[in-house]
Amino acid sequence: MDLLFSTCAAIAVLATALAISRPDPVHALLNLIVSLLATAGVMFSLGAALAAALQVLVYAGAIMVLFVFVVMLLNAGPEARERERRLLRPRYWLLPSAMCAVLLAQLLYGMATPAVAPAAGIAVEAKAVGIRFYGPYLLAVELGSFLLLAGLVAAWRIGRMPERTA
Amino acid sequence: MNGSPLLTAALILGGLVTVSALLIWAERRLLGLWQDRYGPNRAGLFGIGHVLADMIKIFMKDDWIPPFADRVVFTLAPAIVMAAGLLAFAVVPLSPQIHVAADWNIALLFFLAVSSLAVYSVLLGGWASNSKYALLGALRASAQTIAYEVFMGLALMGIVAQAGTFSLTGIVEAQRDLWFIVPQLLGFMIFLVAALAETHRAPLDLPEAEHELTAGFHTEYSGMKFGMFFVGEYAGVALASAMLTTLFFGGWLAPFGLPEAPLLWFALKTAFFIVCFIWLRAALPRPRYDQLMSFGWKVLLPLSLVNVAVTGAVILWRS
């Protein structure tokens, strides 16, 4: 499981770096999909098989399909690639890199502190996750469903917006 | 998994690819039968040699990549459909012993997850071809797949609630007294339509509707890359039939108290559904694309939600 964890983590980091640095939007998205799949592998190696399956099913299998769908509809040509290239000049890297450095520092600090126990790798059953959701985390689930309902209503309203006569 | 899971996996993969290739011939023969003609009946016994001839032909063909295509993605796309189809078979229990990971506690979710990845092959194939017909086919495929995927999963939740497990071995065992086709008839009907749309087989093959889109997403493909899409589609049909058998028709269990013969019963039931898939293609015309989409979102999605709610209510009422 350690080997699986390291391999998946390495792939995830590499694919994410490529997702940021690829000038072609579709190639960037493909790398992001690989990164999401590798993250699912990491979750699985830590014993969260249900979370891993949902990660693939929802993020890699549905949400990213919509992303690719929209990018395909826009049919970005060479101009878009050129624009992306210009955005990748070093001075644009400064601030995001600084933010990432802060996160990295925090991560390293967390790893150095012995109080933070490494993941035990106990397999979590789907049933246990469900019981948790409808027990202690019921409020969070309900809030999430509120948010989704609001999104649905908004999408419905935008879809039915009467055409404005100029 | 008796002893060597690797051998089991290799045998299942080999068998599946062979069956998928044979299905090309079976489909042509059966379509011929139903359309009152012979179909391919020349080479070998009953024309079964046509499979070999077709394979040789497709391997010898010029494997052309259009100069305007995105080479890497263009090559990757047909591999994805094969990989996804074959990977999903890891969780299908052919018999209590012959399977790779059917007793996994998230087997059913694994099947749904992997089959949701198969859409990338069509989507990327269409995009990388850099041609309008292919792009339109890919757009249709992705919208159709996302719409039908939602309730494909929801339609199965009634079964999960009744069996109390995501493990496919557990689901088959839960059908010892009564196959799930009886209590989950609605779920079966929804899953059948969704599986048809997911494998984009006729009558729901709008992504490659040849009367308007030439060949849809695989317009620019030739040689073995086209062959991969083709065999991948049949692997999808075999997978959908195997899942229908496992989830609703008792998998390897013998029907009507007949003698136990796990592998034989599983194969017979799966073959029956494969023939049904071909039969549907021969019998039904395509719907219009907007009809397909509104039927999915406005009829099947609410129905699958009702199915989940009613199943849940019945289970609570009984306990």
From TrEMBL, chain A:
Q: Where mainly found? A: membrane
What is the uppermost EC class here?
Answer: translocase
Catalyses: a quinone + NADH + 5 H(+)(in) = a quinol + NAD(+) + 4 H(+)(out)
Q: Which residue windows are coiled coil?
A: none
Q: Where in the cell is it found?
A: Cell membrane
What EC identifiers does the entry list?
Answer: 7.1.1.-
What is the protein's membrane topology class?
A: Multi-pass membrane protein
Q: Name one GO cellular component term.
A: plasma membrane
Membrane-spanning ranges: 43-71, 92-117, 137-156
User: What Gene3D superfamilies is this protein classified in?
Assistant: NADH-ubiquinone/plastoquinone oxidoreductase chain 6, subunit NuoJ
| One Pfam family this sequence matches | Oxidored_q3
Q: Which InterPro entries match?
A: NADH_UbQ/plastoQ_OxRdtase_su6, Nuo/plastoQ_OxRdtase_6_NuoJ
Q: Which domain of life is it from?
A: Bacteria
Q: Which GO terms describe its molecular function?
A: NADH dehydrogenase (ubiquinone) activity; quinone binding
Q: Print the keywords alphabetically.
A: Cell membrane, Membrane, NAD, Quinone, Translocase, Transmembrane, Transmembrane helix
Q: What does this protein do?
A: NDH-1 shuttles electrons from NADH, via FMN and iron-sulfur (Fe-S) centers, to quinones in the respiratory chain. Couples the redox reaction to proton translocation (for every two electrons transferred, four hydrogen ions are translocated across the cytoplasmic membrane), and thus conserves the redox energy in a proton gradient.
Subunit structure, interactors included: Composed of 13 different subunits. Subunits NuoA, H, J, K, L, M, N constitute the membrane sector of the complex.
- Report the sequence similarity comment from the record: Belongs to the complex I subunit 6 family.
Which NCBIfam families does the UniProt record give?
Answer: PRK06638.1-1
The name of this protein is NADH-quinone oxidoreductase subunit J
Taxonomic placement: Bacteria, Pseudomonadati, Pseudomonadota, Gammaproteobacteria, Nevskiales
From TrEMBL, chain B:
* Compartments it resides in: Cell membrane; Membrane
Q: Which GO terms describe its cellular component?
A: plasma membrane
The Gene Ontology biological process annotation of the record reads: aerobic respiration
Q: Name one GO molecular function term.
A: oxidoreductase activity, acting on NAD(P)H, quinone or similar compound as acceptor
Q: How does it sit in the membrane?
A: Multi-pass membrane protein
Entry EC number(s): 7.1.1.-
The cross-references to PANTHER family, in alphabetical order and at most eight, read: NADH DEHYDROGENASE SUBUNIT 1, NADH-UBIQUINONE OXIDOREDUCTASE CHAIN 1
HAMAP family, per the entry: NDH1_NuoH
Per its record, how is this protein called by name?
NADH-quinone oxidoreductase subunit H
Gene giving rise to this polypeptide = nuoH
